[in-house]
Design goal:
The protein is mostly helical. The chain has one domain: Orthogonal Bundle (Arc Repressor Mutant, subunit A). Helices cover 48% and strands 11% of the residues. The protein has a 3-stranded antiparallel beta sheet.
């Protein structure tokens, strides 16, 4: 994925967050720590990335598993086609 500018669209941020989970193969039973999922977005985009992460969770594209050491996230396998379409659309931009 390409570097982000301040004018980065929310759709690109969402696609990048989904790509990060897909790249780590976080489907079904494999989970990634919520804080690590957002790492690397940079201080300027961190708040926007957190807001878009909450949108992805509300849209049921990302599942949250509560754990005693912090929330874990994974991609919803039932939304596989939609997730790959969102990632692919962003790659074409």
């Amino acid at each position: 994925m390409r570097a982000f500018s301040e004018e980065t669209a929310d759709a690109e941020i969402k696609a990048n967050l989904l790509y990060r989970l897909a790249k780590r193969k976080a489907w079904k039973g494999k989970h990634i720590d919520y804080a690590h999922w957002l790492d690397g977005m940079g201080p300027r985009l961190r708040k926007r990335a957190e807001a878009q992460a909450k949108v992805l969770i509300r849209e049921n594209l990302v599942l949250v598993k509560p754990a005693h050491y912090g929330p874990q996230v994974s991609l919803n396998i039932r939304e596989h086609a939609r997730i790959l379409a969102l990632i692919g659309e962003s790659a074409l931009m």
